[in-house]
Amino acid sequence: MAATYNFPSIIKGNTFKARKIRVVVNGAPLDLTGATICMQLKASARSTIVHDFTHSISNAVLGEITLNKWTVGISDGSYNYDLKITLANGDALTYIKGIFTVEKNTSECL
Q1: pTM of the prediction?
Q2: What CATH number has the domain bearing residue 50?
Q3: CB of 65 within 8 A of CB of 51?
Q4: Contact in structure between 36 and 85 (CB atoms under 8 Å)
Q5: Radius of gyration of the chain (CA)
Q6: Angle at CA 16, nearest 5°, toward 27 and 74?
């Protein structure tokens, strides 16, 4: 079963800073050599993708994934996400899931 992690709210127009996720299964790092990663934001499971996280596998042997920074330009609201990993052998694992909340911005500074 996927762990649940709700990201701290972020204000529209602000920068989502890069962060690492370390995948550990049964106390050991999951080897991500040859794996593919997919992490997307949607308003609901059946809706259109509003953001596709760019990422890199920063250390495959230690199970480390880095989510790249981006400027949050999507509409305010709560979005669902999950992190799906497909291993080199074809096994798929949804590691985490949760909510990503974007708050309305007040200032319209450039």
Answers
A1: 0.88
A2: 2.60.40.10
A3: no
A4: yes
A5: 15
A6: 120
- d(CA 56, CA 108) in angstroms, rounded, equals 32
Q: Say how far apart CA 87 and CA 76 lie, in whole Å.
A: 34
Domain count, the chain: 1
Residue 110 within any structural domain of the chain: no
Taken in order 26, 32, 36, 37, the sign of the CA dihedral is: positive
Q: Which residue has the tokens 């059946």?
A: 46
Model pLDDT for residues 73-95, shown as the tens digit of each residue: 999 999 999 999 999 999 999 99
Burial (CB count within 10 angstroms: exposed 0-12, middle 13-18, buried 19+), residue 65: buried
Provide the pLDDT confidence category of residue 44 given band limits of 50, 70 and 90.
confident
Amino acid (one-letter) located at 87:
L
